[in-house]
Model the fold of this input.
Amino acid sequence: NWKNVFTLLTQKSDDTITEQFTSSEEPSVMEFKNWMHAISSHLGKAKGNKIKRIIIVFDNMDRLPSEKVMQLWSAIYTFFAGSEFENIWTIIPYDYMHLCDAIYESGEDGKIKDSDKFKRFINKTFPVVYTVPQPVITDYNKLFNKYFEDAFGTEEHDQKHICQVFMLFHVNPNPRTVISFVNELVAMRLQWPATGCRLQNIALFVLKKDGLLYGNNSLEENLKDVSSFYPDQEAVRTQLCQFAYGLHDKSLAGELPLRRLLSAAIKSGDSLARFVEQPHFISVLENILATEAT
Done:
C-alpha cells in the first residue's frame, strides 16, 4: 500500500482526530435562542444555494397527562413563540379539546370556561394554524376493514357484523383504537380457536370486557345495547361466560347466567318452569336454595 509507505517515509500521520464537547448545563432562554439562530444561519449558508431546513415535530401531546401538557406547552411557548428561526420550523399536532381541558377548567355543564381566551393564545403562539377535518363514516369503515383483513383475511363471515358493533362503541375511532381492538381479537381467537366460538361473540367480549369483568351490572344489563345485533342471547351469554372464566366446557359456563336468572326469578316470585330443561338446573337451584337458607 503506497499510502502507508509514504506515511512511513515522511513520518507524517494522516489520522483524523474528532473532538466532541458535551454540556449538561441547562441553557437559559437567551442562550437557547442564540444557539437556534446560529444553527438557522448556518443552514442558510449551505453550499450550492441549497437551503436546508430543520423541522421539529412535537407529536403525541394528547397522550400526556394535563400537568405534563402544561409544562411542555410552556416550554414551547417560551422558546419558539415570537422567535423567527428562518430555517428551523416547528410543527405541533394538537387536539383542541384536550389542550383546552389541560389548560383551563371546565364549568358545571362540562364546557370550557375560557375557550375564546385559548383561541387567542393559540393565535399568538402559531403564525399558521391548519385544521384537519374529521374523517367521514366510510373512511372509518375502510380503516377498520383494512386492519381486519390484514389479520383475518377476506373470507371471515363475521367481518361486517363485527365492524357494525365496533362502530356502535367507537363512533370516531383513531387508527390506534382499531389496531388495539384487532390485535386483541387475534389474541382471543388464538386462545379460542374452536369453530363453535363465533368471532363476533369474541369481538363482543373484547368490547364489553371491562364492564363484564369489573362492572357491577348483570350480564343481561351489559347486553341490552347490543340485543339487536345478537338475537340468540342465551348462546351469547354462555360464550361470554366461557371467555370471562376460561371455561371450555359449555354446559359448565351455562351455569353462571342460569344462576343469575334463577336468583332473579326466585326473588321476584316468578315461575321457574321455563328453566327446567336447562342443563344443571337441579344442581344450580339446590346451590341457590342452600345459599339463601344459610
Q: What stands out?
A: The CA atoms of residues 60 and 96 lie 13 Å apart. The chain has a mean pLDDT of 80. Strands lie at 54-57, 88-91. The radius of gyration is 32 Å.
